[in-house]
Write a structure and sequence with these properties.
- The strands form 2 sheets. This protein has a 5-stranded parallel β-sheet with strand order 2-7-1-8-9, with helices on both faces. A 4-stranded mixed β-sheet has the order 4-3-6-5.
- The chain has 2 domains: 140 residues, P-loop containing nucleotide triphosphate hydrolases (Rossmann fold, 3-Layer(aba) Sandwich), CATH 3.40.50; 59 residues, Guanylate Kinase phosphate binding domain (2-Layer Sandwich), CATH 3.30.63.
- It is α/β, with parallel strands linked by helices and 204 residues long.
- 41% of the residues lie in helices and 21% in strands.
- It is built from 8 helices and 9 strands.
- Helix 1 packs across helix 7.
- The two termini are 16 Å apart.
- Bound molecules: guanosine-5'-monophosphate.
- The site of guanosine-5'-monophosphate has 14 residues, from strand 5, strand 6 and helix 4.
């Protein structure tokens, strides 16, 4: 059996609480989080190299030319991208690598790495999403409105993902369980068991 890890792509509206759920998942030593690069300004409390690699636009564009990203996208006026080296090294080491990225980037990966696992995470309603965005208190009204409009568009892309997880208020444990259930189920497809199926008749 192959010991290569899984690439797990997680998308969902900004403010959906993905970070909290992924924080729980990343307590498992089998999982690592891919820190993205971005050209947006750090929010209060964000640390370079931990939450993002914060970069100038010119540096980001140089990295694009050097094929330094698995995928990248422009979101709300800034670049975001997944550095290629970290992901490949960890997959090779058998780790499940979690990417938390928006929809355009996820769809790029769907073309280039179709056997990745695609999970869409969202609060139970638009009203709840808006509440969470406002509670975060880190953005002005205009940014919140823009993020809500993007979220509306993203929701319609959820059908392109393998699994949808509702991160409901007060039910975070269930969302975490659903995540592990999705990873487990996705490993049982014929494609992911191909090596085992191939050796089936010769293993007696
Ligand atoms: P935020 O500014 O709220 O941290 O992130 C905005 C959006 O960018 C979120 O949907 C987040 O998942 C997404 N994002 C973060 N890193 C990446 C990345 O490397 N690539 C892409 N395509 N999107 C990303």
């Amino acid at each position: 059996m192959s010991s290569v890890g899984r690439l797990i792509v997680v998308s969902g509206p900004s403010g959906s609480g993905k970070g909290t759920i992924l924080g729980e998942i990343l307590k498992s030593p089998d999982y690592v989080y891919s820190v993205s690069a971005t050209t947006r300004q750090p929010r209060q409390g964000e640390i370079d190299g931990k939450h993002y690699f914060f970069m100038q636009k010119t540096e980001f564009e140089e990295r694009i030319l050097q094929n330094g990203f698995i995928e990248y996208a422009e979101y709300n006026g800034n670049y975001y991208g997944t550095p290629v080296d970290f992901v490949n090294a960890n997959l090779k080491n058998g780790k499940n690598v979690v990417l938390e990225i928006e929809v355009q980037g996820a769809m790029q990966i769907k073309k280039t790495i179709p056997d990745a696992l695609f999970i869409f995470m969202t609060p139970e309603s638009r009203t709840e999403l808006e509440k969470r965005l406002r509670l975060r208190g880190s953005e002005d009204e205009q940014t919140i409105k823009r993020r809500l409009a993007i979220a509306d568009r993203e929701l319609s892309s959820s059908l392109l993902y393998d699994y949808v997880i509702f991160n409901e208020k007060g039910k975070q444990e269930k969302a975490v369980e659903d995540f592990f259930a999705a990873v487990r189920a996705s490993a049982l497809t014929p494609l992911h068991q191909y090596d085992r199926l191939k050796t089936y008749f010769y293993n007696d």
